[in-house]
């Protein structure tokens, strides 16, 4: 009778038998467990079953065939258990996903976005001037003293240069100098004129910043639209015509307007435009509200950017965007424009 494997190599077969029981009992309830099982028994490098195959040489040749068959069966068992476990795990997973609770309320689609009232107002203003032949120019929000103040004919001791009004990034060493958040869009006039030659007919919309205390009527940042026209023979009548055309287009044909003398360092003469705003509860039935500053470009400004002020004249204007937006939409507190409260934004 041929000697059986049992007798000739008990230890290997004992191991096989023990491992068979372990493999049958192994818990394979999760992908982590399945992977640990694969590495433990079938891993290429140090898998327990894989290693047993390396010991087949120790088995005497007569019983080697039987030992090989036993090992192959063990390997097959481990592979089958692993395959079955993984198939089951995949099934469980897709069942989880398919488990839709039909009694749940439907999900509301998120509401479509809309344009912020400030953006709408700014775009409307820009469009009116574009129809009057103006082109849009831009400048940086971080400015230097020369563009923001000096070239605009601000004297070195002008109060606007003070820390109280201007948000400095690099302080000035008294008077001129320093880097700041622009306090108005007027420096874009300087940049445009410096970079090109007359004629100019541009508007510059953008953000400006001031070191203001924050209240219902003032904020540390707001928006302006700047305008500049420079050519031969430009007069104050041209300025007044353009501003009145703008105001009537924006506020309505029957708006009451007042063109009132004022002062700005960069214009001479200067004027402000007021509109009459009817208020039923007001003792006077309404009140004048300033909506923009303007004037004829001061010859000092033209000379600062190398334009011959004997040959060329120009006008400029600058208006805030927040006030017209607040008038138009009946908003009584500027801060609400910057809080991004959806209950406010949803109304637009
Ligand atoms: N820069 C001025 C301000 O911030 C507004 C302004 C006034 C702009 C008169 C102009 C101008 O261009 O001519 O208050």
If you had to describe this structure to a student in words, what would you say it looks like?
This protein has 348 residues and is of the alpha+beta class. The chain folds into two domains: 9-98; 117-345, 2-Layer Sandwich (BirA Bifunctional Protein, domain 2), CATH 3.30.930. The protein is built from twelve helices and ten strands. The strands form two sheets. Strands 1-5-6-10-9-8-7 form a seven-stranded mixed sheet, with helices on both faces. Strands 2-4-3 form a three-stranded antiparallel sheet. Helix 2 (10-25) runs parallel beside helix 5, helix 4 packs antiparallel against helix 5 and helix 6 (117-131) crosses helix 11 (322-329). It is elongated. The protein starts with a helix and ends with a helix. The relative contact order is 0.10. The model is unreliable at 1-8 (pLDDT under 50). 3,4-dihydroxyphenylalanine binds at residues 184, 186, 226, 264, 267, 293-295, 316-318.
Structure summarized in a few sentences:
By secondary structure, this protein is an alpha+beta fold. Helix content is 40%, strand content 21%. A seven-stranded mixed beta sheet has the order 1-5-6-10-9-8-7, sandwiched between helices. A three-stranded antiparallel beta sheet has the order 2-4-3.
Helix content: 25-40%
List the ions, cofactors and other small molecules found in this model. 3,4-dihydroxyphenylalanine
**How many helices?**
12
Tell me the Rg in angstroms.
Answer: 41 Å
Please, what is the average pLDDT?
Answer: 92
What's the CATH topology name of the largest domain?
Answer: BirA Bifunctional Protein, domain 2
CATH superfamily of the largest domain: Bira Bifunctional Protein, Domain 2
